[in-house]
## 1
Amino acid sequence: MGGGSFVRAVVIAAGLIAGAGAAWAQGAPPAATGERITEWDIPQISTLPDDEFGRLVRFGRSVLEATYAHVGPAVADPAMRFAGNNLACANCHLNDGRKKFGLPLVAADADYPAYSARTARDLTLADRVNQCMIRSMNGRPMPADARPMLALLAYLTVLSTHIPEDAKISGAGAGQMPELDRAADPVRGAGIFRAQCADCHGVSGEGVRRNGADAALGYGVPPLWGADSFNDGAGMSRLMTLANFAHNNMPNGTDWLMPQLSPPDAWDVAAFVESQSRPALAGLERDFPDLLRKPIDAPYGPYADGFSAAQHKYGPYAPIRAEIARLKAEKSSVPNPNLK
Ligand code: HEC
Ligand code: HEC
């Protein structure tokens, strides 16, 4: 078992000490299996006691919000430089991981350990955090017992209070708006970017630093491409993720109940962002050893089917999805000689 179960034990202990009256220990009974949890019953971090565990959780929230200041490439202690860019986890996991369709982290502690098709092994929650460190943060893994890691895990444990193991939440991920029956168009997207995004993210997608001289102060608005952005192996490098994220969350402050960008505009502006250059992660060809489980919009090969890399990156996806379904059916109809 990884850090998750250790932290869970700490949470239970802290709950006992705080007593059943603690606001963050109250709440609805766990939902029945299969049912999606719509009302997230997340404790207020400010109600946690000022004890060792409460302080660890608050530190974890700070690592999520100001990642650059704790483990970024410009921090004073070289041993603490785990992230390779000056983003914050919360630039993508919006509202400290508590926003519907803003890549919420509300069920993360309940989701792991889990099998990962990308790495073809079981991941602990610490391993999953490190996937974002290596890809979204373009950095290197943090040891499972490093204090910022323990703090992140403690914070994530609190976010999953009252979420039963393997439960599904509503509002997970970045959403699933209707797809286009054409390829997303980066040229049309460039005009949408200038009109809808450049005021905040900059005409060259470079973002806005809080302080020109001190990178460890991070960004007021994060970059969307270039050397200080997420790398090409990150989840945000997939068109579906970025397009849905933009539809449900951008311009910043938008939420899924009242999106500002129409689906076609969100697909095209996302295509423009994904067409720009960003750091390259080595070894991507080893991701998803079972290619039939690779997301169809992974912007790097190899692929199980004969569709072009451009169609995988920009769509349309329906024909690829149909072909993958056909290949899966074909594969499962071939008798496995190793089975008696
Ligand atoms: C550039 C955007 C971005 C940044 C920055 C980022 N992540 Fe992520 N993260 C993602 C995406 C995209 C996913 C995949 C979500 C999905 O599969 O629905 C993800 C998934 C996760 C998950 C798994 C959630 C689950 O329930 O399966 C965890 C945990 C996580 N991130 C933690 C972190 C932490 C901690 C940091 C900072 C060290 C971080 N992320 C930084 C984009 C980002
Ligand atoms: C009002 C200013 C504003 C506008 C306009 C805006 N953004 Fe953002 N965007 C932000 C801020 C601020 C964040 C970080 C949110 C946070 O940390 O809570 C962000 C985060 C993001 C992220 C995730 C973080 C990253 O570095 O990748 C993406 C992707 C993104 N914006 C895309 C877009 C796109 C595409 C548009 C245009 C359709 C857009 N944004 C318009 C302010 C803005």
Note: The chain has three domains: 3-18+43-167, 186-274, 289-333.
## 2
Amino acid sequence: MAKFVCTQCNKEYDQPTPDGFCTNQPDCEYGSGWLKEVKGAPASATDATDEATASAPEPEPIGFENEIGLCILMMDGSLSMGDLAFPTTDYPGDKFQLVSMNAAGGVWSLKNITQADNALIALCVFGGAPKLEWIKSVKEIVDDYGDEAAFGEYIRLILETKTPEPRTTNLNEALKLAHEIYQAYLKGGLSEHGGIKDFKPLVHKTVRVGGGQGEEDFISIPNARILIYTDGEHNVTQAVHNPFAEEEQSVLLSAFIGEEDGKGVKQMQKMANICPKHAPAQGFFLIHSPERIQTLKGLFRMASGASGFCPSCLLMEQAPAEEAAKAETLEPDGTTVPETVEEQETIDDPQPQMNTDGHG
Ligand SMILES: [Zn+2]
Ligand SMILES: [Zn+2]
């Protein structure tokens, strides 16, 4: 009788793997499955907690035309990221591992998009100060790192060795650098940040629904997203200043890794965009239990593909393709018309929501 079972693919093991994660690649979705000890019961017995790890189907690939999309990943590499990600569970990884595996998995899932050379990723780490490591296209990343696991290890290495001032967390400086890169993208040139120059930033025209007022307007949203996460609190003296809040439509997504009453949760939530489709929902994601691993990976994917804003957008992306097609009608002119189908979605995944979900 197996003593350990993968939470993702149910592969049985007599011994735990060295790192506690499933080695059943490529069948088992990378970065999601870890081994859970089976206590007394046969491995086939239904474990009530397994439902939380139902695998999300791969959404339809996102296509870029001849224009450039950008995702800025602003990743917290502070020392506390070396602590266990979910200390009250049997999840074996630390927070570095959690984010590096899922960032790699999210980016890697875009490798087959059309125009993968036009989807840019700006990889940044931050502690007391931020540092841009590089700007590469998804195609260059795939060519340079070869496979998802190697890319994940690379991200971990960068977080652990390149983070400036890892004892502190300065959200202001991180947001400032992200905003500078974003502004350069809007102007069509990233050469001062080591990226390409003379390109056309991609812009989508979208209907924005007013928050509960029934109002709608058309806005142009650049095909760029910034994803910032932390596991801690802004711990320098100035208050948090968020330059993205001054944009007509913020493209800033935020996440907090830790308990929902953790210090810093509110700061991260406050800086997140208000979704143009799902207002007043915000683009904030709380990663407080292993059941949110799929959410985290989906968040990295969504941000990397510059394709959504909030947990409801993510749910639609992770829904089966035909559901997504029903939920969103693409008009011939590329206008996205939001409908209300997402309210009827029933997905086994824990619903990624803001902080009012009754502890998942
Ligand atoms: Zn597995
Ligand atoms: Zn949304």
Note: The domain at 69-310 is CATH 3.40.50.410 (Rossmann fold).
